[in-house]
Prior knowledge:
Layout: H1 4-24, H2 30-43, H3 46-49, H4 59-80, E1 83-87, H5 102-112, E2 125-131, E3 140-144, E4 147-153, E5 159-163, E6 178-180, E7 183-185, E8 192-194, E9 200-202, E10 217-218, E11 220-223, E12 226-231, H6 246-249, E13 253-264, H7 269-272, H8 279-284, E14 305-315, E15 323-334, E16 337-338, E17 344-351, E18 355-362, E19 366-377, E20 380-390, H9 395-418, H10 431-443
The structure holds FE2/S2 (inorganic) cluster and fe (ii) ion (FE2).
Amino acid sequence: xxxxxxxxxxxxxxxxxxxxxxxxxxxxxxxxxxxxxxxxxxxxxxxxxxxxxxxxxxxxxxxxxxxxxxxxxxxxxxxxxxxxxxxxxxxxxxxxxxxxxxxxxxxxxxxxxxxxxxxxxxxxxxxxxxxxxxxxxxxxxxxxxxxxxxxxxxxxxxxxxxxxxxxxxxxxxxxxxxxxxxxxxxxxxxxxxxxxxxxxxxxxxxxxxxxxxxxxxxxxxxxxxxxxxxxxxxxxxxxxxxxxxxxxxxxxxxxxxxxxxxxxxxxxxxxxxxxxxxxxxxxxxxxxxxxxxxxxxxxxxxxxxxxxxxxxxxxxxxxxxxxxxxxxxxxxxxxxxxxxxxxxxxxxxxxxxxxxxxxxxxxxxxxxxxxxxxxxxxxxxxxxxxxxxxxxxxxxxxxxxxxxxxxxxxxxxxxxxxxxxxxxxxxxxxxxxxxxxxxxxxxxxxxxxxxxxxxxxxxxxxx
Length: 463
Ligand code: FES
Ligand SMILES: [Fe+2]
């Protein structure tokens, strides 16, 4: 989607070209064109039928026109434009106290919080690096999983992901580097590195290229509108694949918007939520209009609306043991009466440590949320949701789904941002707690001997 600046430039250029054409080709100054138009309208007698405020010479007319244009633009955005809700680390998930800014509160909570005896910080598996539409002709510098990467598209359209730092003198290939054919050219001295294996193929001022001049090339795949990389602490190549969603590839489901959140927690806390059926009532029952603040969402003014949930979780068996499945039934009740339109079943397929496909199966509404969770730093997670729905679903309906989901996630974020990772939870002998215990055992498959830990932790395998 063109930015506001791009649209402004296009508009300015169009008006300037029109004015110049009138002026030079037809020798009519622009204001004269306007005057001719005004006279035609006035002479047509149209104005006599118009109420006073429609008088083209009256300032009131232009004020009303401006207000209507702005309102029309806002309404257009509301109804037709896909949602793009971005919330940074201090935007949500902390309790404001009126004396400090959101950033100050976030910083102080982060400093004071007990981290707990956390598992390794970067699990093994496929992770979303960036959305495909953000990758144009320029290389993009991305920092994920504690790695500094450059992502670029070669001349044949294929995506490459390399380590960002040039082995010559350490320049960042993602900042000022240029794509040349299948290669990326370093912005500092022009060394060229091949996309598919990271090998240096040209040094502009030397006939010979050192054999060992190369950067790490990451195994990547582009599907479902995302660029993914395979991360494995032991250097093992992919042991499973991410499935492609056919409805997205063939266009039956269309892109309806995105949300992006930053969370201050260990990565495992987020997928664990999928097996935590007991928190659904406690955190997600209050009506979405009651907001994201856990301390105020139980307001009696919104008690007439309630989200009702039923859920279960299980892990798949071999060869899909890397997949966990949550099934959720959602029902929205107003004054105790169900709204059939938003009664949906959601199948959440957690594929590895950081990707979830949540398929929406409603009576009318079908589609999927793609959920991408990627650590940016050991305890900072980037969570992006893309919503795809059947092409017949109006954007305004899709927005409602997206907003419901975003508000519910932001309530979870308030829990995650403030909690510690409890390595030895006190569990009851109930189905609810046993599911969480099972999820923890299931998630351990994504850690291995050399999985990175937080620096201050001793290097043991006691997770
Ligand atoms: S630092 Fe990259 S070519 Fe010199
Ligand atoms: Fe939740």
